[in-house]
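Sat 14:20. Reprocessing the chain from the morning session after the first attempt stalled halfway. Input below, unchanged.
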Amino acid sequence: MIITRLAVEGVGRFRSRHVVQGLGPGLNLLCAPNEAGKSTLFRALQAALFARHGSKTEELRRLGCLDAEVPASIEVGFRRGEAEYLVRKSFLRGTGAKLSRDGSVVAEGRAADEKIWELLDLAPGASIAEPSTFGLLWVPQAKSFDAYEPSPEAKALLGRVIEAEVGQVLGGERGERVLRSVCERLAREATATGQPKAGGPWRTAIERRDAAKAELAALQATMATLEADRAALAGLLRQREALSDTSALAAMRADLATAAAERDAAARADHAAQQAETEQAQRELTAERARKRHEELVGLDQRIARRREQIAALDRQLAEQTNVLDAQATVLSTKEQALANLAAKLSEAERAADRARRREASARDAEHVEELSVRLTKARRLRDDIARVKQAIERTTVPMEAVKAIETARRALEAAEARREAKAPRVIVRPRPAGAGKILCDGAPVTEGREVAATAPLLITVADLAEIEIKPAASPDDDAAVEIARENLAKALRTAGVASLAEAQECRAKAADLEAERRGLLAELSATAPAVGKEDGIAALERQLATAKAALDALTADTDRAPDHASGDTPGETKKIALPDRETLARERIAAEAACDLARHAHRTAQEMVSTAREQVAATRFMCKGTEAQIAEANRALRDGLVLCPDAERADRLTALAAAAGEARVLFEAAREKAAALRAAVPTAEVRAATEARVKRLTGAIETNERRLGEVERDIAALQGRIATRGGEGLGEREAEAVDALALAESELARTDRRVAALKLLKTTIEESRQAAADQFLAPVKTAMRPYLHALFPGADAALDPRFGIDGISRGAAAAIEPFVSLSDGTREQVAIIVRLALGRLLAERGNPVPVVLDDALVFSDDDRIERMFDVLTRAAEKQQVIVLTCRSRAFLTCGGRPLSIVPEDLSSG
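Finished this time. Tokens:
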């Protein structure tokens, strides 16, 4: 099969009809940038060959143009054998299918879909056919480095092709069927890991055996529980007898009464000691309070004396600070007067500097007014030139549509004349040497050989010997076509207002030159008078000039120099202001600013001195206020102390408080001695804790004995009831039945185990036999693959499994096999493509050629490898059609092959 045509419309980015040009046998290369639609064409080709035209799959919905109102139309031409086929299919909005052979329609609609699949040896489906070997050899985008797993139909076809050469071996389709049958039977019994399968016979037998075991175990556990209950009952009867001993219980109660009496006596002694200790604490608190009252009065007397000393010292300090403050105020007044004098001098210097700056600004603004006037004059001249060039363009230009119409009419005239000339008889005149110049063709002498197309009656004169008139066959249609084309050309020229196409093109060239001149003038105008926001540039210049003149008038008025404008009518022109030169004015300004800086420095220094003096006065005043506040605080504290204890009462109160503190101390010592004597009579904490523990132990033992006796009575009653119940259930007969059921289940499981083991042994034997026959079965594939593989990896060999999957490669006779998944992306891509090319070559050599389509393959290959892969593709294309789609035009520059292109159909037909 060789694909010869592919056209699409309403597919992906191709809203209009586009055609792939150049398709043919051998290597076909379509280089186009990203988003050019290469992968879209690949999917469209698959849809036309494998999908039913009425399908509504998600893949087909993505194939259509967004918001398109036309159906997705695909047209595919291919050659199979000696016949040429053409497939036309429409999807989505308007469906349809048509298959033609050698120009004649052979099937339409659903019949066309199935006829295509029949031609390509595909298995028909409900909506899309299994692509069989096409799925193996057609490599989608980003899938070139994956080891493709062939479908069952593809593997069956490859197996039939190989067995046709090497004969039926266990590694072929027959062995596949046997192994598949064994695997299916084994799959009903076991999982892929060899475990019993849920719901299968093996699992059912195991579950039946496990259920019998569980039932027998439950019965045996019940019987064991019954014997355990009988032993437990005997133990409980012995416990009840021991717990009912009255003599032991009476002894524990006597010991409990003795321990409780000892505990109560110790508690009474501890209570008396606590009362004495409480009295001791009260006496101690009274003595401490008396001592604190005496100490507080002593402290108050001392504080009153210190306050009086502090007030006298603060009065002396305040007098000193007041003297310092008066001296600092006198200095501050002198410095403030000096600062006022310097401020007056600084103001005069600043006014002089400001006058100098305004005089300099007046001179600068006068120059600015003159510069604006020159620019405004130039801008107005440029505006007039632009208007003149624009009028010339409007007079000269010829619309591009008119030029295209003239060119189309001229081509139509040339084509009509060429068709007429092609049908006209060809007259060839070859004069001999003696006849040179004696033969006239339509009155023109013929000196050398000449060939003339007789589109009109032609007269040939041979000296005075003869006249030959040649009249062409009548062709009124061709003449009429020529006349119509000539009239159309004349009409187009009249519409454009020119005499010829050259004149129209010359007009457009002149208009282009004028347009370039206009753009240059516009650029110059924009540079001379740039627009300000939405305001025109010339208007902006006029406004700037008026503003500059007003500013100049104001400055010259301040400097007592009135502006002397020109009295002419042309706006924007002014006479120069009568001011000194710029350098003189700059020197005056610099001198005035220097004097101003000196005055400013002196003023700033005086300000700093005044500020310092003010800070000193403020600091001294603050210190005075602080001292006055301290004096007021000391007087207040002294008054508060005298209120608490006046001088007249202080001595008597000190004596009384000292006596009260001594008496309270004597009473406290007596209470402490009494508390110590009572505490010594109290048993120690260890003794009291031991007594309390003995009371608790004996009380708990008595309560526990009574509680345990009740529990034992209840347990005895429960065991007696359970033993009586289980004794009548017939556990012995039920145990014998469970033993028989378990033996039957184990026998059935043994038969199932033998069947599963036999299936596993048969599967292992078949797989080992197939592995032994794999080299013979895969030999044709490796033979077809070897020249391609050696082009990239000399001496290398590929390891394939019987299902044509790639296990890995070895790079030498003794080299280890490198697993396919461990290879780099570039190497995996190259090996995967080589395997596909080899399988395609094998199919082609056995009369089953299938095109190889690679969409953006070899994306991971380096420069050296990709060159060798180009050699592999060229070699593979000798046996079959290879179509490569790529966006790497520079990398595939040396690939060779047929160059393909995607063009609109009207261009492809031309």
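Residues 166-170, 561-577 have pLDDT under 50 and may be disordered.
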